[in-house]
Write a structure and sequence with these properties.
Length: 368
């Protein structure tokens, strides 16, 4: 049993329900909204079946059929970390979700597949722990991509360098990581030895929500178990080739002993950008700063005179691999934006086509 505050409830969400709560708009306890709706938080989702947590306990929940029919994208459906208004079914541990409250933050990516849709990885998060392995699996370009997505949310990214006990040249790897993560706190950890666990505990504050993201096998669930003090999440031992095994199968919300909410996520095979324009600028802040000093506003940073970026490359002040990574992610973001525009035009065309069909049907009915 948790209070709403234990689960991260606060003024942002309370204000959304205050106008509906005719009995006591100032209450911070369970809010009865006239028709028996209660605020609950989505703790887990599996194929449109949800687990909700609230002051009355845990409920299995579903969405009304009309909601599933009318939703134009996955971003319009509840995700782990969302706050919803739900109607418990009398005498059962089941509920129906009736309303999705506005999100304070959202960690998103382009959903897998050919369609251009947004997928919410976790909602209403304050901290994003980007977990990477400090061993042979360390991938600097992947870290840059994760940080660009994390910065865009408005939450605070923290880089967690796990498996420090397996690092052969930890100091050299740390220098490389710091070069690609400006302004980001980095914490070395080991779920085996316990290194860095206290630093993670200090970062987790009561009432805040932290999400762990990273590739399969980097040890997210092992770290979560350390923080919780039990084996809440299934884990597998590392393989002989130094790679971890993927174990978490769904996004799950948990509450740490200190009161922070933790969301564990399955390993992400491919983190495609969705809306990371500002996040890209923060993840590559030194590139953006240099670009602002170019002689021409429309500089392409290739051959123009007075290009600050080309000058930094020649002087050895900017790593060419870092610039290439920035350009790659920038092109990907531009492509996603163009696909969004195409989808919007297609949806508008379908909408007006249906309007014309409905109008013709009404005219025929009137002529009878």
């Amino acid at each position: 049993m948790f209070s709403l505050e234990d689960l991260g409830w606060g003024p942002f969400f309370r204000e959304q329900t205050a106008q509906l709560n005719t009995e006591d708009p100032s209450t911070t306890a369970i809010v009865a909204l006239g028709t028996g709706f209660y605020p609950m938080r989505v703790a887990e989702e599996q194929r449109s079946v949800y687990v909700l947590w609230g002051e009355a306990g845990a409920f299995d929940a579903t969405l009304p059929g009309r909601w599933l029919h009318e939703a134009e994208g996955r971003d319009q459906l509840p995700a782990v970390g969302d706050w919803v208004l739900a109607r418990p079914l009398p005498g059962e541990d089941r509920a129906v979700i009736e309303q999705l409250l506005g999100r304070r933050t959202a960690l998103s990516r382009k959903a897998a597949g050919v369609r251009t849709n947004e997928q919410i990885i976790a909602a209403n998060v304050d901290l994003i722990f980007v977990v990477a392995s400090l061993n042979r699996e360390l991938n600097l370009r992947r870290i840059e991509r994760y940080l660009a997505v994390a910065w865009e949310t408005g939450a605070t990214p923290v880089l967690v360098l796990n498996k420090a006990d397996l690092a052969e040249d930890g100091d050299a790897l740390l220098r490389e990581v710091h070069d690609v993560a400006p302004g980001v706190e980095a914490i070395e950890t080991s779920a085996v030895t316990g290194e860095g666990i206290e630093a993670l505990n200090i970062a987790l504050k009561y009432g805040q929500t932290a999400v762990f993201i990273g590739s399969s096998g980097v040890g997210k669930s092992s770290l979560v178990n350390r923080l919780l003090g039990n084996e809440a999440q299934a884990v597998s031992h590392i393989r002989s080739d130094d790679k971890g095994r993927h174990t978490t199968t769904s996004r799950q919300m948990l509450v740490a002993p200190g009161g922070a909410v933790i969301i564990d996520t399955p390993g992400i095979r491919e983190l495609q950008l969705w809306d990371a324009g500002e996040g890209l600028g923060q993840a590559f802040s030194e590139v953006e700063t240099l670009a602002a000093g170019c002689a021409f506003r429309d500089c392409t940073h290739t051959s123009e005179p007075g290009c600050a970026i080309m000058g930094a490359l020649r002087a050895g002040e900017l790593d060419r691999r870092r610039l290439e990574s920035y350009r790659k992610l920038e092109r990907e973001q531009q492509f996603i934006e163009s696909k969004k525009d195409d989808r919007l035009r297609s949806e508008q065309k379908k909408k007006w086509k249906q309007i014309h069909v409905d109008n013709r049907r009404r005219m025929k009915m009137r002529g009878r």
